């Protein structure tokens, strides 16, 4: 399917998943799509392997958790983020290293204090490598971290940011 990118989400400095200054992190970028889903794009490197040539399963779960937890901001205006309460994953295929991988998530239930979401990690051929569902506590970023979020949380535009995606 073909989708337009509505907005890019911010990255932090040292997050394992989205940290732009973390030399060991996945360096994922997140994009809000016109169908109210969130797309995460990341490029696992040799440092992220479990078995040789394969992304570590814990890191696959982390990228899926991050994508589902961020998806609430696609449908809610303002400073609402998710704090993980429950995460379930199903691993279908190994995720190779050294190629762009996509994670897609959407919100399936939204209440006053909690939300639930589902998501998948897709391989370059479009097949599902990992699928999951999660439950999250809604919180503002200022309640989650005690530092100045404006200094540590920024949208960094790059020439590689897509305007349209297909998957």
Topology:
Elements: E1 2-8, E2 11-12, E3 29-33, E4 38-42, H1 57-70, H2 72-75, E5 81-91, E6 101-110, E7 114-122, E8 128-139, H3 141-144, H4 149-152, E9 153-154, E10 164-166
Antiparallel strand pairs: 1-3, 1-10, 2-9, 3-4, 4-6, 5-8, 6-7, 7-8
Query: What general outline do the C-alpha atoms trace?
Result: globular
Helix content: 10-25%
Question: What's the number of extended β-strand segments?
Answer: 10
List unreliable stretches of 5+ residues.
none
Q: Which structural category do the helix and sheet elements fall into?
A: alpha+beta
Number of helices: 4
| Strand arrangement across the biggest beta sheet | 5-8-7-6-4-3-1-10
The helix/strand order is EEEEHHEEEEHHEE
Q: Beta-strand level of the residues, as a percent range?
A: 35-45%
Rg, rounded, reads: 15 Å
**What composes the largest sheet?**
8 strands, antiparallel
End-to-end distance? 5 Å
Q: How much is the average pLDDT?
A: 91
Folded structure, characterized:
With 167 residues, the chain is α+β, with helices and mostly antiparallel strands. The chain is 16% helix and 40% strand. The protein has helices at 57-70, 72-75, 141-144, 149-152, and strands spanning 2-8, 11-12, 29-33, 38-42, 81-91, 101-110, 114-122, 128-139, 153-154, 164-166. The strands form 2 sheets. Strands 5-8-7-6-4-3-1-10 form an 8-stranded antiparallel beta sheet. Strands 2-9 form a two-stranded antiparallel ribbon. The mean pLDDT is 91.
